[in-house]
Amino acid sequence: MLVHLNHRLPQMCLRLLRAEVWADKGRSKLQRVTARVVPNDVLEFPAVVAFARLVVIGGDSYRLHEEMIAAGGLIKDQKWSGRLNVGQTEAAIAGATDRAVSQQVQQRLLELYPAFRTSLASALEARMKQLVDGLQKKLAERADKEAGDIASILTELKKSIEDELNDPVYVQPTLFATEEQERYDRNKDAMRARVNEIPEEIERETEAIRARFADPRARMFPVAVTFLVPEKMAGVDNV
After folding, report:
1. Partners of 218 in the beta sheet?
2. Domain total of the chain
3. Does residue 76 lie within any of the structural domains?
């Protein structure tokens, strides 16, 4: 990121993007479907790829993970010809150029799209499930690490306070005025109370972390669709 997320510029950009995404049909200036040319050695037949935002939430709707995902399939003889695997999808996307296909091909792809919609949605669902299954272990490891980290931090704090209370210099009798002696005693009492609170706080914070990572739920939000057309098929109506 070249600009911090809390800077006004990216915040303004995000507001504009959200407004376009949620704008009423016909009023949005944002195009969510495109068709791009790919080299002939990347794809033999056209492909359609859908992009979606994947969000995994835990307890109290805490966002545990977020990423963009993509899935798609080949188009052969104007029909869905099979799902692309992850490597094929990445290669097809990486091979996309900034060249648009001809208007005739664009129109033909738009006419064919309704026939691909269900298969494309299924491909995205399968990709989401694959990623979420793979995230289960990572999320469990994150929960263990965060619980261990907070326990370690609070245990170290408890030890530090106890060391200060037991420090001979700290407990050494000194000539205090009455008000200073009372303040000194209050501070010691507060430190002892803090030491006694820490074990319960460790248990409470650990339970909160476990609850946050318990029962993760995936949410998917479709974003855009890209048709990828081999160069040899990008200029004529032969998709």
Report:
1. 56
2. 2
3. yes
Same domain? For 117 and 183 the reply is no
Q: Which two tokens stand for residue 132?
A: 């979420």
Q: Label residue 34 exposed, middle or buried (CB < 10 Å: 0-12, 13-18, 19+).
A: middle
Q: Render 69-124 in DSSP notation, one character per residue.
A: EEEEEEEETTEEEEE--HHHHHHHHHT--SPBPPHHHHHHHHHHHHHHHHHHHHHH
Token pair recorded at residue 48? 């359609």
Structure tokens, 27: 């009023």
Tell whether 115 is covered by a domain. Answer: yes
Structure tokens at 202: 């460790």
Percentage of residues in the chain having pLDDT higher than 70: 87
Residue 164: partners with Cβ closer than 8 Å, 6 or more residues away: 170, 191
C-alpha distance from residue 101 to each of 34, 88, 155, 202 (Å): 9, 21, 63, 60
- Residue 43 burial by CB count (10 A; 0-12/13-18/19+): exposed, middle or buried? buried
Q: Which domain holds residue 127?
A: 31-135+217-233
Residues for the chain: how many in total?
239
pLDDT digit string, tens, across residues 180-231: 777 877 888 899 999 999 999 999 999 999 999 988 899 998 888 999 999 9
